[in-house]
Write a structure and sequence with these properties.
By secondary structure, the protein is of the alpha+beta class. About 40% of the residues lie in helices and about 15% in strands. The chain has a single domain (about 5-345), classed as Amidase signature (AS) domain (Amidase signature (AS) enzymes), CATH 3.90.1300. The strands form three sheets. It has an eight-stranded mixed beta sheet, sandwiched between helices. It has a two-stranded antiparallel ribbon with strand order 1-2. A two-stranded antiparallel sheet has the order 9-10.
């Protein structure tokens, strides 16, 4: 289908995998989009294209019809994947969620839990935690500055703001577990990556070797090539422990602010193999570290996240921010995003769109 380009600069990625929906929304071609998020595929395109995106709580929205399974394909082990909306406003995200949330006879894992409808809190009654960077996942100075500016505005408005990170949440462990679980599940479903490496030969093997020294996420991916069922279920137990740690932390706040990615959109990977390093200011960062370090832990835990526009880089590229909320608290989280949105201004239209 060709390359999906970013409407802010067609030489750059729009993100993925819901990049087409995000690019169309940012360019004014579409009023609403639906995406799926397994590692940030709603949040990253929203971030790179300067719009809003919502990753709901796991099992809030049906996945039926997203990718119909092949004959004989295993689907019962599929986890950490959810569907959600992309839009140019919080109001449109809320409208879309109300339309798509809830039970579906084709997806029995979706729970019959009603969406809550609580009135939004004024800024002075909100309690918000924030972080501008996590050890091992560097972000650009412009990203940090954008978060600091938002925090300063929140403080000036009387919001209770606290710099905090989940104390019992090991991000290295989360990245490793995520890589391990996602590689195992994809391998069971599609025979990838082990069969793919065997079939494709040297190019695939070279790509896998390039992943080996690239941090806890890729070490988890590689370890899953020989993962036993027992080890898989042990990993699921660790996942639940991390999810509980994140929920304990989030129960103290209305939202947790953190980056979406290492920086704004980067050039299309046309000549470089997937996994080519990305420049983050004066650092060279492994591809997967730059791309999904801030999104994948929240796929692991299943928490709802709103991505909203935050600022622009010196080159005029959008930079977004994540608002993370408690499990099943999408509507409250959308209220927080709507309350914060005047502090960052309206969604901007790319030049010429």
């Amino acid at each position: 289908h060709g390359t999906t380009s970013n409407p802010w600069n067609t030489k750059l990625t729009s993100g993925g995998s819901s990049g087409g929906a995000a690019a169309a929304l940012a360019a004014g071609m579409s009023p609403l989009g639906l995406g799926s998020d397994l590692a940030g595929s709603i949040r990253l395109p929203a971030h790179y294209c300067g719009i809003y995106g919502l990753k709901p709580t796991d099992y809030r929205v049906s996945r039926a019809g997203h990718i119909p399974p092949l004959p004989g394909q295993v689907t019962t082990l599929y986890r950490m994947f959810t569907s959600g909306p992309l839009a140019r406003s919080v109001a449109d995200l809320r409208l879309a969620l109300q339309l798509i949330a809830g039970p579906d006879e084709r997806d029995t894992e979706v729970l019959p839990m009603a969406l809550t409808h609580t009135p939004p809190k004024p800024l002075r009654e909100l309690r918000v935690a924030w972080i501008d960077e996590i050890d091992g996942a560097p972000v650009t100075a412009e990203t940090r500055a954008g978060i600091h500016n938002l925090v300063n505005r929140l403080t000036a408005a009387g919001c209770r703001v606290e710099r905090a990170i989940p104390p019992d949440f090991d991000f290295d462990q989360a990245w490793r577990l995520y890589g391990q679980l996602i590689a195992y599940v994809i391998g069971v479903q599609l025979g990838i990556p082990a069969r793919w490496v065997a079939k494709t030969g040297a190019p695939a093997a070279a790509m896998m070797r390039s992943f080996l020294p690239r941090g806890p996420f890729m070490s988890g991916v590689v370890s899953a090539l020989n993962l036993s069922a027992y080890t898989y279920f042990t990993a699921l137990t660790e996942r639940e422990e991390l999810a509980r740690a994140m929920e304990r932390f989030l129960s103290q706040y209305d939202a947790w602010i953190c980056p979406v990615a290492s920086g704004p959109a980067f050039p299309h990977c046309k000549s470089a193999p997937l996994g080519a390093p990305i420049r983050v200011d004066d650092k060279t960062v492994p591809y997967w570290t730059a791309a999904i370090s801030y999104t994948s832990p929240l796929n692991l835990t299943g928490h709802p996240v709103v991505t909203m526009p935050l600022t622009q880089s010196a080159d005029g590229l959008p930079i977004g921010v994540q608002l993370v909320g408690q499990l099943w608290g999408e509507m409250e989280l959308l209220n927080v995003a709507e309350t914060l949105s005047p502090l960052v201004g309206p969604v901007r239209r790319p030049p010429g769109c």
